[in-house]
Amino acid sequence: MIVVTGGAGFIGANFVLDWLAQSDEALINLDKLTYAGNRENLASLAGDPRHVFVHGDIGDSRLVGSLLAQYQPRAIVNFAAESHVDRSIHGPEDFIQTNIVGSFHLLESTRAYWNTLPDEARQRFRFLHVSTDEVYGSLASDEPAFSETHAYAPNSPYSASKAASDHLVRAYHHTYALPVLTTNCSNNYGPYHFPEKLIPLMIVNALAGKPLPVYGDGQQIRDWLYVGDHCSAIRRVLEAGRPGETYNVGGRNEQPNLDIVHTVCRLLDELRPRTDGLPYRAQITSVADRPGHDRRYAIDARKIERELGWMPAETFATGILKTVNWYLDNQQWVQRVQSGAYRDWVEKNYGERRP
Questions:
Q1: What is the sign, positive or negative, of the torsion defined by CA atoms of 199, 204, 205, 207?
Q2: Is 333 domain-assigned?
Q3: Which of 6, 73, 323, 328 sits between 20 and 30 A of 121, alpha carbons compared?
Q4: % of the chain beyond a pLDDT of 90
């Protein structure tokens, strides 16, 4: 059995679904169910005894300790995090509490549990911490991609909080010999993505006839990774990664944000044309850039490819088509996650940036 934290969120839910589709090994899914945590993401697992959902916080040491003692997992995969840069700019405290303080308490609970295990179980145990490429800062257009040895230079409260959690994980390995693994991934996209991030926001707004807000000139470059590929990378790192090591996970797909929006618009023109015959590009609206917006991220994933034999299975063309089709086929899911709180957030964030 394994424990997955944050398993009702976007990447975590995809990981849980993929894990149980490919393995009979049960898992405990611990999620606080903040705004982006959605149990509906896991609806297909209703009644499945391999999936035990627990509503709780990674910072609740008593709860986490009791779960570890009861279920005796062989591994913990930590997805639990506040993850939206814009939200961290408007309200950084939640990011500090979850990403730093919560990670600290989770590590302490894990260390206490790990110290009780017999020698063989201690050797097999793994703590896998899922992080982001944003901890490395921003790259110029001609700089090489981020490798695992790139210096940390976070530029937002979100990325700074994730950098701090990465450092804690590293310290627990070097100080206490806790067998940890860290993955730093590029921008994910795919099913169940909460519609505040770029790709789902563009799809949802386009279909609703709303503006498609693009920050500044739209030339911020990201490396886009299909979430299913990310899940397969995590499974491979958990299976064969070396304790204490970091593995960068990328999609081999650097593109400017504006090109991503144009691709989404083109696919929607083909799959769900506007009734007035106009292209969805007509809805693109430039808004003021966010403070401290990193210009470019790029991942050098050669280490995980060389050492663990992992490669992304999806190209951007195949992954984005799957993603757009998923949102077209799951409009009820979209409608239900668009609560009043979500609408208020989008208006606050983008309304303030109108040119």
A1: positive
A2: no
A3: 6
A4: 84
- List the catalytic residue out of 82, 86, 133, 300: 133
- State pLDDT tens for residues 72-118: 999 999 999 987 777 888 899 999 999 999 999 999 999 999 999 99
Point out the catalytic residue in the list 158, 172, 192, 247: 158
pLDDT at residue 271 is higher than 80: yes
**pTM of the complete model:** 0.93
> Within 10 Å of residue 18's Cβ, how many Cβ atoms?
17
Phi/psi of residue 90, nearest 5 degrees: -75, -30
Query: Which amino acid is located at 110 in the chain?
Result: T
Q: Tell me, yes or no, if 133 is annotated catalytic.
A: yes
**Sole residue written with tokens 């957030």:** 345
Percent of the chain topping pLDDT 70: 95
Confidence of residue 342 (pLDDT cuts 50, 70, 90): very low
- Tell me the CATH number at 60: 3.40.50.720
What is the torsion angle, in degrees rounded to the nearest 10, for the CA atoms of residue 284, residue 134, residue 12 and residue 178?
180
Tokens of 206: 């386009």
Strand partners, 60: none
Answer yes or no: is 158 within a domain. yes
Give the count of beta carbons closer than 10 Å to the beta carbon of residue 325. Answer: 14
Q: Is residue 118 part of a domain?
A: yes
Residue given tokens 């899922």 in the structure block: 130
Domain count, the chain: 1
pLDDT at position 293, please? 84
Q: Is 158 tagged catalytic?
A: yes
Characterize 180-197 residue by residue with b for buried, 16 or more Cβ atoms within 10 angstroms of its Cβ, and e for exposed: bbbbbbbbbbbbbbbbbb
* Residue 158 amino acid letter: Y
Report the alpha-carbon distance of residue 251 to residue 259 in Å, rounded.
16
Q: By residue range, what is the domain housing residue 35?
A: 2-193+224-252+293-315
Considering the candidates 57, 134, 166, 223, report the single residue annotated as catalytic: 134
202 pLDDT exceeds 70? Answer: yes
Residue 199 lies in a domain: no
Residue 207: band (very low, low, confident or very high) from pLDDT cuts 50, 70, 90: very high
